[in-house]
Amino acid sequence: MSFAAKVKEELASKWDFRPCCYKAELAGIIDTIGTLTLSSLGLSLHIITQSGRIANRIYRLITEKMHFKAEVYSRQEERLYKVNSYLVAVNGTEEVQKLLRLLGKDEHMLVNSHSISDQVIQWDCCRHSYLRGVFLATGSLSDPIKKTYHLELITHWPEHAVQLCNLLDQHELNPHIIERKGSQVVYLKDSNCISDFLTMIGAINSMLEYENTRVLKETRNAINRTTNCEMANMDKVIEASLQQCAYISWLERHGALSRLSPGLIQAAEGRMEHSNLSLKELGERLGISKSALNHRLRKLREFALEEGWQGEMEQEIDPDAEEEDVEW
Prior knowledge:
About 55% of the residues lie in helices and about 15% in strands. By secondary structure, it is an alpha+beta fold. The protein folds into two domains: about 5-200, Roll (Endonuclease I-creI), CATH 3.10.28; about 235-305, no CATH class. Strands 1-2-4-3 form a four-stranded antiparallel beta sheet. A four-stranded antiparallel beta sheet has the order 5-6-8-7. It is rod-shaped, with a radius of gyration of 36 Å.
């Protein structure tokens, strides 16, 4: 089960909200995926979803909370994966009109604009519930264990998307809108904003799981970055030490060290004896500062170049090693 499905499952099982919040939640669902159809039975309101839990919640919102009659139908989609879809229907012109009026709308608003009615979002709790309804209808959320954080709310109507952004902006969640395949996508990218959104719509357990996963991932990433930096620094220390040992060894073989000052000889002997230490560690061992040691090693290199060192690195050769026979 995806993380988004877990969030929706948690929301679909919660029934501890105020009556006005159920009205706002149902309005959010209808504004997003509700459609009106006209048949011999008159006007009908259809709400289609692929989740049985969400279909059951919509049915209970209409029948138990709004006290209207509704019916649920299921069918298997004739597509590759043949997933089930569920249709929640309110039939009859009079019933549909009464329900829409209760939600602050009429059939003309639903057909032409799907805009949010001020009647259902008067209070903060109602605004949160409206967003919960939209998320249940078309929301998606990336798994926090993945690289990016991403939450989406999808609607077909530009004015509805703008109003959703306004609702999210009221809580400083920094939403954005893009168009994708003819639909309007309202999305959040900031992990803190996504966490606040989950809290706002009532998915507390999912928010705690999200935060726990996010903290573990960011801690692991921080450790990896630190380790990589330390390894990179170690490589630089080793490379610099090898080069320093190379020109000091060259000077020693050519008898040039004896012509140097005591300070330079001390630096050369210290580097050859402790080739695995960084400049800072070697300077502490020799009782001089890192900058002073670096200056002396640089002087040694300049002297080696003047004496004829070509910058070659030393290679360790085993004098007792026998030449291997090569078969052609």
